Amino acid sequence: MFERSAGPARCPDYLRLAAIAGLFALPVVMLLFYSLSARGQAEPTLRAWRYLFAERRNFLSALASSLSYGFSAVIVAFVSCVLPAKAIARAHGSHTAAIEAVLLTPALLPSISFAIGIHQLFIRAGLVDTWVGVLLILSFVSYPYMLRALIASYESIDPAYEQCARNLGAGALRTFLRVELPFLLPGAAAGGSVVFLVAFSDYFLVFLVGGGIVPAFTSYLVPFIRSADYSIASALSIIFLLVPIGLFVLQDRALTLLLRRRGMSV
Amino acid sequence: MSRSWSIRRACALLPLLPFVLFIAAGVGYTVLQSLGLWISAHSAESYPAGYAVILRSAWFYRSLLYSLWIATVSTLLSVVLGTLLALLLRGLPQRLYPFALMYKIPLILPHVVIGLIVLLGFGRGAALGRLLAAPGSSALVSAYVFKSASFVTLLVYAVLRGFDLRQLETARMLGAGALLSFRALLLPVILPPAATAGVIVFLFSFGAFDLPFLLGASRPAMLAIDVYNRYWYRDLSARPAAMASLVVMFLFSLLFVTVYFRLVRRQKHGIRHV
Would you identify the CATH topology of the domain A55-261? Predict the structure, then answer.
């Protein structure tokens, strides 16, 4: 009863829901609508979808490339952030806050402010136009999301667990794999989702370092937008929305299954 | 277990050292080139520093002010709309909440797709486009707001979830008006996450590239676009000025990053994003 009457505005619930839908679902409906239309033609057409089907090799290889550096960025972030996250979570004092702030800053700064300098370094190092170069620059801007998530996870693990495992004779690796990792997984999944989204959806950095040589879904999409071919651009955007949603659902299922098998609640 | 930074604990930070070094080197290289040094990979020739050029040129001030202006407007609108949306979500009964999760759609959408959506909505012939006649700025601001309002909602709603709505009922029973109960009860809860979200939104709309690249006007241009064009399409003599404006942009952003961490530290038990 209180729940219903105490809202900020007294309007029916379905109206509020309609407002949210209008704001956020309508644009997606608009994409679908445009993907089924063609310029100067009133009736719906499958032209854009047919085109994508005919061109499937190009756009699937772009998608595969984006997925590959997206997933790799998640792995790089996890591997490089685990130890620092634990150290930061277990330490206290003013230094800790400063170290954490410095390490999180790359995600907050506009990436162009340091990426152009890095681009020139990459030119000298021969890393431009390479997949590795793209992965590196995407990792630079996305690892802080993983770091923050892992710090939060480690803060919630009682250090006594680790001590207990060590006392029972488990080595450092075994303690990490059997005791800490299960606790870290939900946080790592959340941080990993953001890392993946940042890497997968980036246009500028991939374009700057990849130079159009490293295929990318964003680089495939943008020319259609620039040349105002909105029906094909809309069809591609729908795929762009579906891929991460599908991955999130999959990840959620896998995580629930994994943790349940280990007898942990999610 | 020790609580301070021993050598051993500091060593645990080493895996992130390459990232920090690369970024520092990127910034360092930008500073060097802004001073006219190390411009060409092939010759040791040096150029005059770029700062005198940008301080004397009109385009720089125009781009900087324009970027700050767009970022300010986008931030204010995103924070207000995002907070209203969070309040609206909080008022929804539990059973409807799963449907309301669609507010997260813009968080998943890449910036280039947000750009496309705004182009479709604001394009020639589209109703909204005719309504808001100025294409460049209003399209850019709407794109930023569409993307960022959900982000503000996410952070504000996370805190509002722990807010007992019965407090509002009690306040009303004790005779408080809507304004007073908002100011005394809701505002202190909403303000901290709204402020941190606001700083992040500001930083993002100040320096991002993707959206102004698709939507922005070329004159005045957002600083990121201006710098990019000077870096990519002009000859080497334009490089120091482009890099100098990047340094200015970096310093401005650093200022806001400091504000962000101040805010976060003050609300240590609040919700943190990054």
Answer: MetI-like fold (1.10.3720)
